[in-house]
Amino acid sequence: MHRYVARANVEHYLGILKDAGLTMQQRSTTISLLVVELDKLSNDAEHLEFAESKVAVSRQQVAQAASIRDSAPAGTTQRQDAERHLIHLENVHTLLDDFCHRLRNKVGPRSV
C-alpha cells in the first residue's frame, strides 16, 4: 500500500511543480516533499518502469518549455519568466533522471 501512496504523491508533487506561478519557497518545499517520496521508492527496483515514464514526460516538458522560451521576444519579462520556468523544469528533470539511474544500477544489466 505504501508504494501506491508514494507513487500517487510523486504524481501529485510533479503536477504541482508544473505551475510556473509557484514561489521559490513553494518550489523548494514541493521538491523536498518529492525527494522524500522518491526515496521511499528507491529501495525497490520494481519502480524502474515508473521512473522511466516520469523521466520521459519530464523530458517532453523541458522541450516544450524551451520552445516557449525561444518563441518569446528577447529582453522581455515574458522571456525571463519562461527562462526561469525552463530552468526549474530542467532541475526537476535532473532529479528524476538521477532517481532513474539509481534504480537502473540496482537492477543491473537487463536482457533484451
Topology summary:
Blueprint: H1 2-17, H2 24-41, H3 48-71, H4 77-107
Helix pairs in contact: 1-2, 3-4
What features would you describe in this structure?
This protein has helices at residues 2-17, 24-41, 48-71, 77-107. 79% of the residues lie in helices and 0% in strands. The chain is an all-alpha fold and 112 residues long. The chain has four helices and no strands.
Overview in brief:
This protein is mainly alpha-helical and 112 residues long.
Name the helicity range. Answer: over 70%
The end-to-end span amounts to: 30 Å
Morphology: elongated
Largest pleated sheet: none
Structural class: mainly alpha
The whole-number mean of residue pLDDT values reads 90
Number of helices, counting only DSSP H or I runs of 4 residues or more: 4
Number of strands: 0
Question: Ranges with pLDDT <50 over ≥5 residues?
Answer: none
Please tell me how large the radius of gyration is: 16 Å
Give the DSSP E fraction (strand runs of 2 or more residues).
under 5%
Q: Topology as H/E string?
A: HHHH
